[in-house]
Amino acid sequence: MGTDTFQTAPEDAEGLEMEEDVFFQTISEAQKEIRTIRQKLDVLKQTHRDIKMATSTDQVSGIREDMKTEVAKVSKAAAKVKKMLDGLAEMAKEEEQGKGQAKQRMRTSMVAAMRKKLKLTLREFSNLRTQMNDDYREVVDRRYETITGEKASDAMLEHMIETGESESIFQKAILDQGGNFSETINEIKERHDAVMEVEKGLLELHQIFLDMATLVEQQGEMIDNIESQVARASTFTAQGTEVLRDTKTLHKKIKRKQLCLALIVVAIIAAIAIAIILTVR
Prior knowledge:
The chain has helices at 2-53, 57-95, 101-148, 154-163, 166-177, 182-280. It is rod-shaped and about 150 Å long. Residues 1-8 have low confidence and may be disordered. By secondary structure, it is an all-alpha fold. The protein has 6 helices and no strands. The chain is 93% helix and 0% strand. The protein has one domain (2-223): Methane Monooxygenase Hydroxylase, Chain G, domain 1 (Up-down Bundle). Residues 185-247 form the T-SNARE coiled-coil homology domain. One of its GO terms (molecular function) is SNARE binding. It comes from Picocystis salinarum. Its main location: membrane. This is t-SNARE coiled-coil homology domain-containing protein.
């Protein structure tokens, strides 16, 4: 029995070391993926600026394909990081039942920090999504005024953007006004398709962002709970030490009092003995 224990101990130690390596390697990979996502964000911001400046259908169509590709890559990377962090969170959770609170708190804090980092990065994609929608609305508004000579109402703009019926509305306006604006109509259609495709991809990222926001909040509460438990344990330890110190002090005082009482009793007995001896003489 003792031999088995001796043989498995090194294996357990090796297993713990491998687990530690996996944890930190995964953290490193997640950091790398988040950096890649940030780089893709910069690329998308630039393509967004490019599509704003585009003046032809071909330009808009080319940029649209670029944006679609980049958004797909970002969605894939974000989903990968989320899966990594979920796995790390499970590893950290197992520490609660295994190796102690110190390591659990360290791992939980690291996962929470990574989730917060991903959340902040994805928030910028949400901001970009809002900016793209606002800019597309502005383009449709300008094109409508160019074709019809009138300013579109907010309700009409919302209808054209949400339904994608800007093409048919523009065609009707062209028939009413006369003139050839086919290039403008095609450009608007390309812009609408681009916005819808990017919107779909960014909505997936937004969902991951919401998941991260919820998990960061929950994990923050978990970390606070662990820290409060540690603080409470430290307080109990300090209080226990103080009680022990007070007990020792009280014990010393009692011993001194007992000694004094014993000396007094001895003195009284001695005095009585002396008195008896003197009386006998």
